[in-house]
Design goal:
The protein has one helix and eleven strands. Strands 2, 4, 5, 6, 9, 10 and 11 form a seven-stranded mixed sheet that branches. A four-stranded antiparallel sheet has the order 1-3-8-7, with no helix packed on it.
Length: 119
C-alpha cells in the first residue's frame, strides 16, 4: 500500500491549502480514507475521515473550516483547509483502512506533508 500526500506549504493565518493523497495497492473504493496530523512535540491526532459511502467525520478543532472529499476514479482523497490558524501547523498524514473506527490503530499511513501557518 502506498499513500502519496502532497499540497502542504507555508501560509499566513486565514489562508487556504488543499491537500491531496493518491493511493495505490488497494481497491480504493473499498477503503475509508482519512487525514491525521502531528504537531512538533505532540502525538498524532485525528483530523478528518470519509467512509466508503461518503460519510464524513471531523475533529472539533477543524469542523466548519476543513472539508474532506474523495474521487474514487482517481484513487484520491482531498482535504480542503480554509481559515487556517497557527495551531493547524503540523505534518499531515493520509491514512486508509477498511473502517474509520480502526484507522488510527491498524490503518495504512503514508508519508506526511508539512503545513505551516504563520501568525
Amino acid at each position: 500500500v502506498q499513500l502519496q500526500a502532497s499540497g502542504g506549504g507555508y501560509v499566513q493565518t486565514g489562508g487556504t491549502l488543499r491537500l491531496s493523497c493518491t493511493a495505490s495497492g488497494i481497491t480504493f473504493a473499498g477503503y475509508a480514507m482519512g487525514w491525521f496530523r502531528q504537531a512538533p512535540g505532540k502525538e498524532r491526532e485525528f483530523v478528518s475521515a470519509i467512509s466508503r459511502s461518503g460519510n464524513t467525520q471531523y475533529a472539533d478543532s477543524v469542523k466548519d473550516r476543513f472539508t474532506i472529499s474523495r474521487d474514487n476514479a482517481k484513487n484520491s482523497v482531498y482535504l480542503q483547509m480554509n481559515n487556517l490558524k497557527p495551531e493547524d501547523t503540523a505534518v499531515y498524514f493520509c491514512a486508509a483502512d477498511l473502517a474509520i473506527a480502526t484507522m488510527s490503530t491498524i490503518g495504512h499511513f503514508g508519508q506526511g506533508t508539512l503545513v505551516t501557518v504563520s501568525s
